[in-house]
Structures are given as structure tokens and as C-alpha cells.
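Example: YdcF family protein.
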Amino acid sequence: MTDYLREQALKLWNYHHINHQLEKADAILVLCSHDLRVAERGADLFLEGWAPLLIFSGGLGVITKFMWSEPEAELFARIALRMGVPAERILIENRSSNTGENVLFTKQLLEERNLNPETFIVVQKPYMERRSFATFKKVWPEKHVIVTSPQDSFDIYLSMYTNPALTPDDVISIMVGDLQRIKTYPDKGFQIQQDIPNDVWVAYEALVKAGYDRHLAPI
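Written out as C-alpha cells, the predicted fold is:
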């Protein structure tokens, strides 16, 4: 990757972060994926006392269905258990295959358990903070939500990425695809609208032109 393209990718990385400050909440909702560091971040937050309930949401998604045979949430929950989270404080939603379903199926699961958390900490990959917030507020607008992720810099995240099946170029392509979805998904009813600064969109177009287009959604 050239210095110029790295600079463009960093613009997307920074935009995807919404930099919420942590607040104590009723539940921590971990949106599962191929990134096991997200499981560790969720467990750490629980063990630090930010919320009394830890929810893992994820079946097999577009990427993980080619990597694993068990639901993401089951794998993530085992990581939390090994880290010392009590089993009785964990809920698992293992059917969802995208972010909207993560939120919707978690909402249904909590209703079935007669649980009604009012405030959530959502834990997601660093480059999916903004899209997770926009999706949660569309699906469950009456709840208060803040979003966080593993606390790594762009370069550290790429160099220490926890899943060797994905290269740094793959991660950048996923970031590009997520920005496209931030722009197009509100019109589909999947997310609330998010402003995209012009320089961020220019960076997106430069990365697409350079070939980081493997995770774009069909238009």
C-alpha cells in the first residue's frame, strides 16, 4: 500500500470511529464477527463493572460462514467464560447473519426472557462503530446506546489482527464496504442517516479505484 492510499484508509478508519465515552449501562451487547478481539473487549467491559449482563449476538455471517462451522456467538461466549465471566450473566443470540438482525433478534430474545434493558454498550469492530450505531438507532430507537470497540490504533490493528484468514488489504476492503453501506442503507430502511464529509467520500472513491472493492454491496 502506498503512503497516499494508507492516508485515505486512515480517513475512513477515523470516520468509522464515533468516540463515545463509556457510561455504565444495563447490558453490554457484543456484535459478533470474525474478530475475536471484540469478544475480549466485551468481556473486559463486563469484568470492569460497566454492566451486569453480557449478550453475544451472531450466527454465521457473510465472512464467517466460510471460516467456522459454529455460530459466532457461541465461540465468543466461550472466550468470555475463559476470561472469568459467569455463565449466568451471559445471553447468546446465535441466529443473526447481519447487523440489523443482531439488534432485532437480541430485542426478541430479551422480550422472551422478560428483560428490558434501557441502556446498552454495543461492542463492535473499530471500523464498524458508526454503522452499528446507525443500525441500532434504526431498529431500536427508544433505547440509549453507546458504541465502543477494541482500543487499537489503525496500524496496530492491522499488524496485530487476530484472524490470519484476513489480510490488512481485506480489512481495508471491508472498511470501504462499510462506508458504502453508511451511504446507501438509510434509503433501504436499514440505518439512520449519517453525514459523510466530502474528504471521506473522496478517500472512499480513491480506495475503490485502487481495487479495495471486494466487499462492496450490489447496487
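The helical segments are 3-16, 36-47, 72-82, 99-112, 129-139, 154-159, 168-188, 198-209.
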